[in-house]
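Researcher: I'd like a candidate sequence for this fold, 150 residues long. If you have to choose between options at a position, lean toward the conservative one.
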């Protein structure tokens, strides 16, 4: 029997939540897997592991909310395999580039930006209710999200 994942969103959210729980409960867990800029060549796995760590509940909730909201739309448009490839390649590239600008970094934001960027390219005029009230095109929401996150 062949098992096929129909959507990558829930497994990605589950992985992020489980690793966040480990961060909160296992001593030195975060320190072992956080992106440390000077260590990327001696511990290259931190480029990946840091993508699943978060700086707090709010950080986790925002990233997972955006992943579920935008990720579902994008995954339906490009398919699960391409979505997973985009998620991980965006996250890994963001981790690598972050290592040159930050001494330490963590979070799924790089992967999330990749999802938003791809969706903006595919559906720039998609209307969202900004603050649940103001109809706003996706491209503008993307800019606002970047400004808030930075």
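Model: Candidate sequence:
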């Amino acid at each position: 029997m062949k098992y096929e994942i129909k959507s990558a969103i829930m497994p990605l959210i589950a992985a992020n939540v489980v690793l966040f729980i480990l961060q909160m409960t296992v001593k030195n867990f975060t320190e072992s897997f956080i992106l440390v800029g000077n260590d990327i060549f001696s511990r290259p796995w931190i480029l990946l592991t840091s993508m699943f760590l978060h700086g707090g509940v709010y950080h986790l909730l925002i990233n997972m909310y955006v992943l579920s909201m935008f990720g579902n739309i994008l995954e339906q448009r490009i398919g699960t395999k391409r979505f997973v490839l985009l998620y991980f390649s965006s996250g890994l590239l963001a981790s690598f580039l972050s290592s040159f600008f930050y001494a330490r970094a963590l979070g799924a934001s790089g992967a999330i930006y990749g999802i938003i960027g791809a969706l903006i390219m595919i559906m720039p005029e998609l209307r969202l209710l900004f603050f649940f009230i103001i109809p706003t095109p996706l491209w503008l929401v993307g800019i606002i999200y970047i400004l808030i996150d930075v």
